[in-house]
Amino acid sequence: MHSGFPISNPRHRRRSDAAFTLAEVVIAGCLLAVLVAGSLVALTQVNRWATSARLRTLGLAVAQQRIDILQTIPWQAMGTRPTVLTVGTATENNVPLNNDPFNSATGLGSAFTALDTQMTAVRTTQITDLTARTLRAVVTVTFTYRNRPHSISLTTLRATDSI
Fold first, then answer.
1. Cα-based torsion angle of the residue sequence 40, 42, 45, 46 in order, rounded to the nearest 10 degrees
2. What is the pTM of this model?
3. From CA 142, how far away is CA 131, in angstroms rounded?
4. Are the C-beta atoms of 157 and 136 separated by less than 8 Å?
5. Is the alpha carbon torsion for 92, 85, 125, 101 positive or negative?
6. Average pLDDT in the chain
7. Are 65 and 152 in contact (CB under 8 A)?
């Protein structure tokens, strides 16, 4: 008995029903290309942010290193003042930020060890007397990344070890 509806036989399908059209393939390819390009842009930006954060952290460590020296050097009130605590401004040029000496060690070399750009900074230490037995030290580390200046500054107070 025939109900009037056409009976579809999968073997008799038209060829255009079983495949994608050229327009569908082109649109899908364009969408995929936009997705890949957007992902690459996003990953590049995230990498720049990570590098900037790493350099700021290393700059902070370089500044903290100088603060530690200023805080731990012995200074007696009746003795001579250590030269590192001399009043004035001292500037150190070419302070390495991300130059990892272990990358050159035997067994640690790889195709990725040369990807870090060698960065240097300028560390400035300004010491001023507050009283005869106390001083203020401001340590500033400056460097340039992607043609933008960056600066990290730490301040500490120091008193003599004896009264």
1. -110
2. 0.71
3. 29
4. yes
5. positive
6. 84
7. no
Q: Is residue 142 part of a domain?
A: yes
Which secondary-structure segment (H or E) carries 37?
A: helix 22-72
CA distances from 86 to 71, 79, 128 (A): 13, 14, 8
CA 32 to chain centre: 31
Render pLDDT for 78-134 as a digit per residue (tens, 0 to 9). 888 999 999 999 999 999 887 665 555 555 555 555 555 678 899 999 999 999 899
Whether 137 is covered by a domain: the verdict is yes
HSE on the CB side for 82, CA within 13 Å?
Answer: 16
Tracing tokens 């730490």 back to the chain, one arrives at 154
Spatial CA neighbour of 89 closest among 149, 138, 135, 130: 138
Query: Tokens in use for 114?
Result: 């040369």
| Size of the chain, expressed as the number of residues it contains | 163
Return the H-helix or E-strand segment holding 52.
Answer: helix 22-72
Residue 61 lies in a domain: yes
Specify if 15 maps to a domain. Answer: no
Please list, in sequence order, all residues whose beta carbon lies within 8 angstroms of the beta carbon of residue 56, skipping any fewer than 6 positions away. Answer: 150, 152
**Backbone dihedral angles phi then psi of residue 42, each to the nearest 5 degrees:** -65, -45
> Domain range holding 132?
20-106+118-159
Give me the helices (H) in 86-129, please.
none
Give the total number of structural domains in the chain.
1
